[in-house]
Specification:
The chain is built from 9 helices and no strands. It is mainly α.
Length: 169
């Protein structure tokens, strides 16, 4: 349902997307009502709530999850993207700087996908595209999900972005 809602939104069916996302959230809330609740399930719920703009609920979930895994690149990136969306440019830039400094364990470019999202939300299109290229060079898949990524939507009309995501072969 989550992916279907993203596809609907991306392709201009906002009302249908909202209805499907609300169903997905209800389903995920039901799953999360049973203890213990896995980290990944709470992250998914946060992503769903983020898609509909429930910033305070997302912020609360991110805060709780950060207490468990404060150095998780997905949480750092998610917090940075939320900051960009809610107008806290300083915190967004701080998250972006943290992601740019990530070294060590091979993360398949996830940290740079998040950096691209934050940069796109901040209007830094050149940086966002460079981060995406860096992510792909580190093993991030050219998945179909990138064209539906709500945080990369500021790049949707950029021909460089469309070319970057275009299948080649």
């Amino acid at each position: 349902m989550f992916v279907a809602a993203q596809e609907l939104r991306t392709h201009g069916h906002a009302d249908g997307a909202t209805a499907v996302m609300q169903r997905a959230i209800s389903w995920q809330l039901e799953r999360c009502s049973r203890l213990p609740v896995a980290f990944v399930d709470r992250m998914l719920l946060a992503r769903m709530l983020y898609e509909i703009g429930s910033w305070s609920e997302v912020s609360q979930l991110i805060t709780e999850l950060t207490c468990e895994r404060g150095d998780d690149v997905d949480l750092i990136g998610f917090a940075g993207a939320l900051s960009a969306r809610t107008g806290n440019a300083w915190a967004a830039e701080d998250g972006l700087a943290t992601l740019r400094r990530v070294t060590g364990a091979f993360r398949f470019g996830r940290h740079l996908i998040w950096a691209a999202r934050i940069a796109a939300l901040l209007g830094q299109h050149d940086d966002a595209l460079n981060h995406l290229r860096g992510a792909f060079a580190r093993g991030a898949p050219y998945g179909v999900d990138l064209h539906t990524d709500i945080d990369l939507q500021p790049l949707a009309n950029d021909t460089r972005f469309r070319e970057l995501l275009r299948p080649k072969s």
